[in-house]
Design goal:
Length: 188
Amino acid sequence: MSLSLRLLLTALALLLAATAPAATIYKCRQAGGVVSYQDNPCPGRQIGVLRTPTTAAAARAPAPATAPARASSDAPRPTPTARAPRPSFKCVRPDGSHYYTGNARPARMLVDATNTVAKRVAGAPAAPPGKAWAEDQCANSTRAESCQYYQEQIAANDAREAAARGTDASRLKREGQRLRAIRNHRCN
């Protein structure tokens, strides 16, 4: 190999080593589910710890035989943080029924134009004659309220499923699975 090629390869290796930072990178989940990467431990929910190739190679290298064993209390470890509470909203439909949801975007629906209780939607498309656009009214709710609501919905669905036959039973079984998935996501 020629001397100029060796010098070029050495310079390239030094350049790559200088540009690769030897740092630990923390993968964090911020409020609202946004994922961020930072060089300090996470204030919110920590998803993982990533290492650059330089630090990964150093971590794989065997420890020198003369190095004393490190006590686990020597290095501060990231403490797991609690999951950010999921928002919950109680929405009331124009007909007076209610439901719980994870977003505050109210649903729109057509109601009779004589319905004076419904909140009218400004800027909505033209409604058919005798109808008007209305939207649900949503407000913040506690986690306990929404968990109680889903538990009641599951119990009522299970009772209907036990009495149902044929396709109704399979439809109610799927509904029960959907409700349980929502409850597990919001309440556990």
